[in-house]
Amino acid sequence: MAAQIFSFASYFIENLLVLPNGSLLLSTMTSTGLLYTLSPAVPSPQAHQVTNFSNNITAVTASVALPGYDLYAVGGGLHTSFAFANNSMNLFIVSLATNSIVKSISVPNTKSMNGLAALPSNPYVVLSADSIGGRVLRIDTRTSAVSVAFSDAALVPNAEPPIGINGLKIRGQYLYYTNSNLETFGRIPIDANGSKTGTAETLAQIDGSPDDFAFDTAGNAYVAVHPSSMVKITPCGIVTTIGEGDLFQQPTSVALAHDGASIYVSTGGDFLANPRTGGQILQIPLPC
Fold first, then answer.
1. Are 187 and 170 in contact (CB under 8 A)?
2. Is CB count within 10 Å lower at the N or C end of the chain?
């Protein structure tokens, strides 16, 4: 059964990442600190601000580990309504060893950077989901080169608010993705540089708006679904709801705990409530 282990008073949690020491890295929107760490194992865990961002950065999105000691890439920009101001997006290289931003890479001509994944063959290069443009962006964290890896009709939005490709992971020779508007979970074959080598394949249709996701070692995907559920998708595409109801207030992302026995889920909170409630961190044990 799912249990809440932390919640903000009003901040929206956009994404979470499990760090090597078991703590969580939380990306938030319109909060005081934007990027936080949280130790879920301690009693009454508290969020700790990592660093300061400039005033024109009002939200950070996904994060991914980079080669080097405690270095992480984090997307962010000036947030508007379900989008970012054009040309405000950046990929920040953040050091958790010094709690500082060591590099900022401008990502022009996009209004969204959502899910992030590092290329297995060259983890200095990350792919980012352009949810509004229906593209996958490629960013070299060493050279600061930014390019479009590919676009695809399976990644584009088709509704309001326009949110197409959202979560993004690389597993084997495939880039896996969710499309929030199309309510799909799919994959596209890619090469070592992150360019697509074949056609998109829809693996599952989801009842709701899927956001980010995580894989377990067996290849099952655990997907956060708006407005209030969590689903498991097997490698053969069978969808099972593993959590739903009032506890799940706009699920946004998922991460597998280091022991593989549970998953962490972040939520945005109930932003329509009066007063609004903040994003949560939930923990769900996985069946044996």
1. no
2. C
Phi, psi (5° rounding) for residue 103? -160, 145
Torsion region of 268: left, alpha or beta (phi above 0 gives left; psi -120 to 50 gives alpha) = alpha
d(Cα 14, Cα 266) in Å, to the nearest integer?
7
CB 178 within 8 A of CB 185: yes
Q: What CA–CA distance (Å, rounded) separates 210 from 182? A: 9
Residues in a beta bridge with 257: none
CA distance 209 to 284: 20
- 136-184 pLDDT per residue, tens: 999 999 999 999 999 999 999 999 999 999 999 999 999 999 999 999 9
d(CA 222, CA 89): 28
| Structure tokens that stand for 216 in this block | 């377990």
The tokens of 285 are what? Answer: 């044990």
Q: What is the DSSP letter of 28?
A: E
Instruction: Please state whether 149 falls in left (phi above 0), alpha (psi between -120 and 50) or beta.
Output: alpha
Q: Maximum Cα–Cα distance for the chain, whole Å?
A: 49
pLDDT in tens, 216-261: 999 999 999 999 999 999 999 999 999 999 999 999 999 999 999 9
Give the Cα separation of 17 and 1 in Å (integer): 21
The predicted structure's pLDDT at residue 271: 80
**Ramachandran category for residue 227: left, alpha or beta (phi over 0 → left; psi -120 to 50 → alpha):** alpha
Cα–Cα–Cα angle for 29, 175, 131, rounded to 5 degrees: 35
Count Cα neighbours of 164 within 13 Å in the Cβ-side half-sphere.
20
Instruction: Tell me phi and psi for residue 26, to 5 degrees.
Output: -110, 125
Answer for the pair 1, 282: CB distance below 8 angstroms, yes or no: no
